[in-house]
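Technical annex B. To support the medicinal chemistry partners, we prepared a structural model of the target in complex with magnesium ion, based solely on the information shown next.
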Amino acid sequence: MGDARRGLIIIHTGPGKGKTTAAMGTGLRAVGQGLRVLMLQFIKGSWHYGELDAVQAFGDRFVIRQMGRGFVKVGAEKPDPEDVRMVEEAWQEAERAMASREWDLLILDEINYAISYKMLSPEPVAAALKAKPEDLHVILTGRNAHPSLVELADTVTEFREVKHAYQKGILAQRGIEY
Ligand code: ATP
Ligand code: MG
C-alpha cells in the first residue's frame, strides 16, 4: 500500500461495454477516500443517466458535467460544426479543471471518441496531460484511443466485447445502460 500520491493517466478504451461505468466506479472509490472527482462528458448521450442524480448525494465532491449535445451523428463524412464547438468548449473546461487544482480525479468521458471523430486533435490533449499537476489523476474513456495518448498513459485497459445483449435485440436497460 503506497502512500506517495502519483497522479496517473488511465485510459479505458475498446469496443466492449464498461468503459464509462468503470471510470465512475473509480470515481466512487476515490470520493470514498476523500478525493474530489470531476467527470466531464464530452459526448452527451440521448438518455437521462442515473448517475447524474446519484452523484448529487456527494455534493461538490463528485460532480458530473454534461458538455456535449444530445446526439452526435456518427459515420458522417465530417463532424457537425456545432458538435465540434461543444467538444472544444468541453476541452477548454477540461484545461481549466486541470489547472484549477480543485480536483484530484478528472474523468474525461468519451474524449477518445471525440478525438477519433476528429472533433478534437490529440496534440493539445497530450501536451496538457504532460503538463498536468503531478498529483492529479486523469481517466480518458472512449473507443479508439489515440496511439499518442496510449503511449503517454500509465494504465490502459482495452474492453473487449465478448457479447452484448443488444445483439439479441434487447434494448438499453434502465439502471444498466442509462
Ligand atoms: P457503459 O457506459 O455502459 O460503461 P461504455 O462506456 O463502455 O459503456 P460506450 O461506447 O460509451 O460504452 O457506449 C455507450 C452505450 O452503448 C451504453 O449504453 C452501452 O451499453 C452501449 N454499448 C457499449 N458497448 C456496446 C456493444 N459492444 N454493443 C452494443 N452496445 C454497446
Ligand atoms: Mg462510454
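Notes passed to the chemistry partners:
The two ends are 34 Å apart (CA to CA).
Residues 9-160 form a domain with the Rossmann fold fold (CATH 3.40.50.300).
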